[in-house]
Amino acid sequence: MIDFSQLDRVIHETGRLAITSLLAARPDWAFQDLKAELKMSDGNLSAHLRTLFKAGYTVEIKEMLGRPQTRYALSKAGRIAFAAYLEVLESIVRSGRAAP
To answer: What's the CA angle centered on 57, arms 65 and 59, to 5 degrees?
Structure first.
């Protein structure tokens, strides 16, 4: 029996899944780079990043490079949560393949 309740609801939303996938692939991303890669508006990206931050899944890195720039990275808790999320998805896929 597949237990879909094990899927992390914070990560599972499409926009946040895309963000966490990108953050898992590199040490950090600048806000503008995430925005361009994901083709999200400032407001939409900010809202998703705020949700991830409140859950403890991301950290913000503020820099002054001529102008202020904010970079984002997965926190240790975020990396653990993302790995657990992937494990649940893999178990769902395995269950689906095993079904007659």
So the answer is: 20
